[in-house]
Amino acid sequence: MSPQEKIIKASHLIDMSDIIREGNPTLRAVAKDVELPLSDEDIILGEKMMQFLKNSQDPAMAEKMGLRGGVGLAAPQLDISKRIIAVLVPNPEDEEGNPPAQPYSLQEIMYNPRIVSHSVQDAALADGEGCLSVDREVPGYVVRHSRVTVEYLDKDGNKQKVKLRGYNSMVVQHEIDHTNGIMFYDRINENNPFEIKEGMLIIQ
Using CA atoms, how far apart are residues 82 and 29, in angstroms rounded to an integer? Predict the structure, then answer.
């Protein structure tokens, strides 16, 4: 049974045992485009990936299933070399601890996502990045584009185009990197991990 056949079973919930770790060759492969029209298997896979992110962000479910919290997941991390990513970025509570009007600033399953244009300005997250496929901390600024325009297909096969900036831009670039065999630490300056080049934006 292939990893995808296992994951799309009705009874299966993605957990940490489904996620491959660094050193697995699938994480270094360039993933294949998904074919159109989208197959039921690929649509279900995308929905299962989104469900994992929701479970990982739900304290009770995450504890019960032993999940690390995540805001993004790419199919290659499940040992499935296809260009499919899911991103789920929650909006923060307000200063008084009230829930936000919109729970998520970004909630999308993207098929064949591609960056079609980007800013000249670079950016990095102040706290660095982590990855569900990397069981260690890698300190340093992960240098990315501060703004990107991404084209992708939704689950109905419609072409979508979205402009992203700030944290959402970082999350989507991290996941698209997975479909190109790139790990986040490839973008850290080995000799000077916390180098800030002129004009680089540090996102808190």
Answer: 10
Residue 85 maps to which CATH number?
A: 3.90.45.10
pTM score: 0.96
- Residue 142: which of 83, 202, 72 has the closest Cα? 202
Sheet harboring 144-145: ordered strands across?
144-145, 122-125, 201-203
Binding residues for Fe cation: 131, 174, 178
Q: List the binding residues.
A: 131, 174, 178
Residue 88 domain boundaries: 3-202
Number of domains the chain contains: 1
Choosing from 5, 95, 175, 190, the catalytic residue is 175
Calculate Rg over the CA atoms of the chain.
17
Angstrom distances, CA of residue 136 to CA of 44, 93, 202: 30, 29, 22
**pLDDT tens readout for residues 148-159:** 999 999 999 999
Question: Residue 101 — very low, low, confident or very high, per pLDDT cuts 50/70/90?
Answer: confident
Examine the residue annotation and report whether 175 is marked as an active-site residue of this protein.
yes
Show contacts of 90-94: CB within 8 Å, 24+ apart: 90/57
